[in-house]
Amino acid sequence: MKELNETIIEGKSVAELLKPRIKCIEPFLGMKREGWDVGVISVVEGGDKDDNLFVLSLPTKYPLNFKRLEWWEDRKVEDLPDYVKLETVPIPVVVKAKEYINGQRIISDNGGIYPMTIATPATEQEYKEYERKPGK
Predict the structure, then answer these.
(1) Enclosing H/E stretch for 44
(2) Count of CB atoms situated within 10 Å of the CB of 60
(3) Helices marked H in 43-123
(4) pLDDT tens across 22-57, in order?
(5) Which among 115, 119, 126 is positioned nearest to 71, based on CA atoms?
(6) Positive or negative: CA dihedral 57, 61, 65, 70
(7) What distance in Å separates the CA atoms of residue 35 and residue 48, rounded to the nearest whole number?
(8) pLDDT band, very low/low/confident/very high, at 94 (cuts 50, 70, 90)
(9) What does the alpha-carbon distance between residue 32 and residue 40 come to, in Å, rounded to a whole number?
């Protein structure tokens, strides 16, 4: 079985798509000095470094100025994955994404329309494994 960081779209992997991202949504005093501007997105590369913990805390400390983005928010359509896992009840489903609508919904290859809020990036391998399951 392939690793979580298997490339699922050109230049993007599941691990990359799931990295926390913080966006500056409103101006604040000293923002230029701190390297921020409205619309700037900071990708948190991971680890327990003080810088990462500080950036991750910004939306909680300053909710009017910063927002923690969901994995799909503020991405170009070409950066979204070809396959997604839908956290449906009672059994998760893996589908091939045929189209994305306004960055909020997925049209799957089976014609289903699903909200992004229940989706996480998946690999082609996960999709093939799901398709082989009996009685899916």
Answers:
(1) none
(2) 9
(3) 50-61
(4) 999 999 888 888 889 999 999 988 755 677 888 899
(5) 119
(6) positive
(7) 21
(8) very high
(9) 11
Distance (Å) of CA 26 to CA 5, 22, 60, 62? 33, 12, 14, 10
Cα Rg of the chain (Å, integer):
17
Neighbours of 112 (CB within 10 A): 12
Nearest to residue 83, comparing CAs of 124, 50, 46, 47? Answer: 124
CA distance 125 to 136: 16
End-to-end CA distance of the chain: 20
Structure-derived torsion over alpha carbons of residues 28, 21, 51, 6, reported in degrees to the nearest 10 = -160
pTM equals 0.81
- Residue type at position 25: I
Q: Which of 124, 90, 2 is nearest to 132 (CA)?
A: 124
